[in-house]
């Protein structure tokens, strides 16, 4: 029964999805996780994040996602690690296929605009992101 409910919710969300091409134009940039909705309906809200995601997709639908630690005045600390992304438009959905030396997985972008990004993974966990706003200090 729970599996049917999850699939029904997923189908509903997909039917409300935006045009994949219009979604793609918004995904590049810095994203801060705001909330995770698990398959059992439980939610985890993030009031503070010590890392943010940087996503970059090029015109050939290849790209990467990288974890960054934000600093002050638009400075970031990062490792050399990145998750490779191949983007595919399938069945009117925008899908990200990730690959690292350790794993591969798929996420479907449910919606994206100037300020928000919503994705669902293959375990039906939904991630809500907001556009990251860097901390700017006037040090004068």
Descriptive account of the structure:
The chain is built from two helices and ten strands, in the order ααββββββββββ. The protein is α+β, with helices and mostly antiparallel strands and 140 residues long. It has one domain (2-131): Lipocalin (Beta Barrel), CATH 2.40.128. An eight-stranded antiparallel barrel has the order 1-3-4-6-7-8-9-10. The longest helix has 14 residues, at 2-15. The radius of gyration is 16 Å and the shape is globular. It comes from Winogradskyella haliclonae.
Annotation keywords:
single chain, 140 residues, alpha+beta, Lipocalin, eight-stranded antiparallel beta barrel, 10 strands
Q: Tell me the span between the first and last alpha carbons.
A: 61 Å
Q: Report the sheet-strand fraction.
A: over 45%
Please tally the β strands and state the result.
10
The unreliable regions are none
According to CATH, the fold-level topology is Lipocalin
Structural class: alpha+beta
**CATH level-two architecture:** Beta Barrel
How many domains in all? 1
Strand line-up of the largest beta sheet: 1-3-4-6-7-8-9-10
| Biggest beta sheet attributes | 8 strands, antiparallel, barrel
Overall pLDDT confidence: 86
Instruction: Give the CATH class.
Output: Mainly Beta
Integer-rounded radius of gyration: 16 Å
Could you estimate the helical fraction of the residues in percent? 10-25%
Shape: globular
What count of helical segments does DSSP give?
A: 2
Order of helices and strands: HHEEEEEEEEEE
